[in-house]
Amino acid sequence: MLEQEEQREELLEKIEDLISRKRYAELRDLLLPLEAPDIARLCEDLDEQTLPLVFRLLPKEQAAEVFVELDSDQQEMLIQGFSNTELKEVLDELYLDDTVDIVEEMPANVVKRILRHSDPEMRKSINEILKYPDDCAGSIMTTEFVDLKATMTVEDALKRIRRTGPDKETINICYVIDEGRHLLGYLSIRTILLSEEDDVIGDIMDTNVIFAHTLDDQEDVAQALNKYDFLALPVVDTEHRLVGIVTVDDAMDVLQEEATEDIEKMAAILPGDKPYLKTGVFETWKARTPWLMMLMLSATFTGMILTHFENSLAAVPILTSYIPMLSGTGGNSGTQASTAVIRALSLGEVRFSDLLRVVWKECRVALICGVCLALANFVKMMVVDCWLLNNPTVTPAVAAVVCCTLVGTVACAKLVGASLPILAEKIGFDPAVMASPFISTIVDALSLLIYFRFATWILGV
Amino acid sequence: MLEQEEQREELLEKIEDLISRKRYAELRDLLLPLEAPDIARLCEDLDEQTLPLVFRLLPKEQAAEVFVELDSDQQEMLIQGFSNTELKEVLDELYLDDTVDIVEEMPANVVKRILRHSDPEMRKSINEILKYPDDCAGSIMTTEFVDLKATMTVEDALKRIRRTGPDKETINICYVIDEGRHLLGYLSIRTILLSEEDDVIGDIMDTNVIFAHTLDDQEDVAQALNKYDFLALPVVDTEHRLVGIVTVDDAMDVLQEEATEDIEKMAAILPGDKPYLKTGVFETWKARTPWLMMLMLSATFTGMILTHFENSLAAVPILTSYIPMLSGTGGNSGTQASTAVIRALSLGEVRFSDLLRVVWKECRVALICGVCLALANFVKMMVVDCWLLNNPTVTPAVAAVVCCTLVGTVACAKLVGASLPILAEKIGFDPAVMASPFISTIVDALSLLIYFRFATWILGV
């Protein structure tokens, strides 16, 4: 029963109908069984008058869950309309990391109001997490985890979990710390439940803990959670004190965001953090123009090459008509290689030490690809361009020039495409920007140089 | 303490040293504290003689965990070398869904051996899951979950969890079924632990269950787990009987794979399922050539347009030198729009009903982008091409042709780029193949047509 678009339309109509007829009890019964993310999606289509009304119908806990899932404009609107008591109620129900996410999106006056109505401990934790730079483990962790002492028995531990559990983000993994809050080990709730009541935590815990530092890159943390199939990863400060945990749901979001960011960079877009339809026209323009501009200006070189060989083109004008095909094929070949390598780099499948293996592999792939394309193109030029379209200037010699260029271009494209991202990563650049558009621009220029070289050799122009 | 490349090199050296000196006890102590995925990465660099040796040093449970993480060639090699007893031991330790993954990769004779040495219940479950087509919920689920009855008390439930827990993939979420195994509700281990011992499961369970059907697309299932922040999602058959669960770690893998697949398709590569360096040259060639070939042949149209306007180009030869810049900028603009839309589609942010909003947004973005680029290009042509490079054929009229074409090309590119993926999805095609290379080919032809139109109007050629 995964979400269906039609159901949503139907529900929306029902909601609007119930509101217009003021059947609030029925509306509440309609919403109660829904999951928070689904209610939030429905709320997107409600206006300023109806949203607070619907929101107030929900029970406290569900209301808080829905609140977290709303987009920041709607959250702000709701907060502005909340009485102080209402705000406090919602805040009390939120998990710390969600509160931090909300605080990060709100304008200063709303943040002040939120902090004023959080309890002192919460306020301290929020300020703590806000200190960490974006994109690091500290900024996505939560401080609401279960901590145990190594000297506790399983019975003590279960008592502690039962007492503190309701406020924790997860009880599935518990962490063992000493008096100085240093991380000693961890154990899952399964281990605890499957042990005897008088077993000592220190004896049954796992002391080989994979942990992150507060300033580790959030992507590395998410990859680690994925690699080790953990439900949470502990985060320690420079003195190895446990300060928080990153849970798997947040790691999944990070992986999705990072994939989006890579995809955007590969398409020469400056990455943003808002969904497509929420990004304004001006913002989208700002994200897209810089690379377009740079790539446009760098095409000056290809223009210069063409101007330089103007006489050759005038002598054999048919050569001009194969330029788009050559630069297109070169660009596509380069894109394939660079994309494959960039993705492999970001999944950790390829490292700098693999450079030679990658280059050797691409050499061989390029050779077979190039020869195949050249053969197909030769046949096509002779049959379609020369014979069917009846163009006498398409001679076998011209076809030979085009086909030799194809082989050379594909080879160059694959080599440049595969090696640039690895080299970029080595010197600390983001490999994703070495993708398609950038490679195409380089390959364009190279393919023209190769083209005119072969034209000179074979046609003597 | 996330994985460090240097540590790995160091460890490998130590392992090889200990093996050569036959210090097996030391080697075992070195490996014991490591996590299974890390040991598996180290094993990648071991040869056929040492791998079984190292593997046999590990305790049973850890050995099984490492086995799952190895790549299929190494798994096959190990199985071939296992005695029947060893094989049975490893199989007994594996979770069902991991066993299925392994079985799917092995040649027929190895599969037979595996099935012969699994216990009958396991064999039945493996065959059950193997029946489901790839890429559907049934094929990634596990049947090892905790099921409870609605009439049980919390005390009964905890007893059952303690008894059956060791063999289950997760105990964090438990599912409530009736006599006919129909899914009634679910509850987390947290809810169970935080309830009173004599509470009845039927009263405390959540009956609003989000579930998947066995044949639902695995990507939808993974997206649902991500959206609702679940640790597992139940899978039911057509009669609403609970047959398995999909856990969050598998969902994360699916999301990563699907992102890779989208990225590959966007780069005109036929998606494969092996890591970059494990894919053979021939396989890579097969994945890359079809689209390259198709795109190369479709560039025939741009060639025909150029041949058709040969006389215009002969009259004003400088026009030729701006063709790569125009087609490059058009291609890049189209790539940006299509990539943004494809990603938004795959994250569920954009649907078919948003088509007009998307088009309207892209229209405005295209207009400002186009005008900006045109202005910059006009200045560049006048200052660099005409004045600095001292090319008298670059007149303001020529610059006007190029700049008007830029605006038109960017507009076409953004509109085609943004709308094609949405239309493709509507008619049931994969939007990702409507990406960069495909759009570029269309935009190339369009930009040339626009170019020669403006050339005729402004320059009268």
Describe the fold and architecture:
2 copies of one chain form a homodimer. By secondary structure, chain A is mainly alpha-helical. The first copy, chain A, has 3 domains: 5-131, MgtE N-terminal fold, CATH 1.25.60.10; 146-256, CBS-domain (Roll); 299-459, Orthogonal Bundle (Tetracycline Repressor, domain 2). Helix content of chain A is 65%, strand content 6%. Chain A contains 23 helices and 6 strands. In chain A, the strands form 2 sheets. Chain A has a 3-stranded mixed β-sheet with strand order 1-2-3. The first copy, chain A, has a 3-stranded mixed β-sheet with strand order 4-5-6. In chain A, strand 5 (232-236) and strand 6 (242-247) form a beta hairpin. Chain A is elongated. The relative contact order of chain A is 0.06. The mean pLDDT of chain A is 89. Chains A and B meet through helix 12, helix 13, helix 15, helix 16 and helix 17 of A and helix 12, helix 13, helix 15, helix 16 and helix 17 of B.
